[in-house]
Amino acid sequence: MKKKQAVSPHFAVCMKNTGYPSSLELHKIYRVIPDEDAAEDGDIRVVDESGEDYLYPAKWFAELKLPQEVQKSLLHVA
User: Fold this and answer.
1) Is residue 45 part of a domain?
2) What is the rounded distance in angstroms from the CA atom of residue 55 to the CA atom of residue 33?
3) Kind and range of the H or E element at 14?
């Protein structure tokens, strides 16, 4: 049986939000949910302003490599 590898959190910054200004804020960092099927179609799954994860065109985002302290801060829910 193949063990599922733990995936560290991924983040991306929004560079375009055409048609979704209330769901995506320009220049904001969003959490990325891994989705291989979406990636094959040129999409990215992010947790948007609704608090839910949705698919958007991957070209609207730039993925980021963040220090662990920053990731912890972004994942912290008050």
Assistant:
1) yes
2) 10
3) strand 10-14
What is the CB neighbour count within 10 angstroms for residue 11?
Answer: 19
Mean pLDDT of the chain: 89
**Which neighbouring-strand residues pair with 10?**
32
What 3-state DSSP class applies to 10? strand
- Please provide the DSSP assignment of 16-78 as one string: --TT-TTT--TT-EEEEEP-HHHHHTTEEEEE-TTSSEEEEEGGGEEEE---HHHHHHHH---
41, part of any domain:
yes
Pick 5 or 60 by higher pLDDT.
Answer: 60
